[in-house]
Amino acid sequence: xxxxxxxxxLISGGGSNMVxxxxxxxxxxxxxxxxxxxxxxxxxxxxxxxxxxxxVASVDHRPFGKDRAMFETALLAPLLAAQPDVVCLAxxxxxxxxxxxxxxxxxxxxxxxxxLPKYPGLHTHQRxxxxxxxxAGCTVHEVTADLxxxxxxxxxxxxxxxxxxxxxxSARVLGMEHRLYPAVLRRFAEGDRTPVLLPAA
Length: 201
Ligand code: GAR
What we know:
Layout: E1 5-11, H1 16-24, E2 31-38, H2 44-51, E3 56-58, H3 68-81, E4 86-89, H4 98-103, E5 108-112, H5 124-130, E6 135-142, E7 152-159, H6 166-189, E8 196-197
Parallel strand pairs: 1-2, 1-4, 2-3, 4-5, 7-8
Antiparallel strand pairs: 5-6, 6-7
The protein binds glycinamide ribonucleotide.
């Protein structure tokens, strides 16, 4: 049997996307989770990963202040020790330097809660509402040095409904994130870079 693709998942918070990725990597999946890593030692997702039997580690970014390079040097230690083939950012809320990204060129993925190239960065749902958009969604893309701008590996759309707030829209998009990211990871682990386009919810 061929070796499984080793997947490390980086989180900052609750880790609901991480849970869906881990749960998707069942016995017949080409990949397996080898590490869940957080920049916040108190991230709720770390306990969820432990409960799923995945090794966890954390490197608190706060003592490093504005020194992103030093933080990333510390972050690299547990990450490289896990020998990942693929790194999935799943609600990881630190911007990574080009040097860090380059180490994982072509094998680092991110999920973003908008239909990129619309709304890179933060507050995506409020921005979609403010613009009067009829639909919103999420994107999985390859991570490159430019924020939220790498090649798109998958997208899923949801309608914006009358009376939506950023919270209700965010919940609807998150439901699609939970379907999209596992679908993209499976295809990526199979060596197929064709974008996954999920039908509208
Ligand atoms: C998700 O909506 C993800 O798309 C977003 O953070 C949330 C994390 O939720 N990521 C970003 O905004 C990245 N810039 P989770 O911790 O429950 O997976």
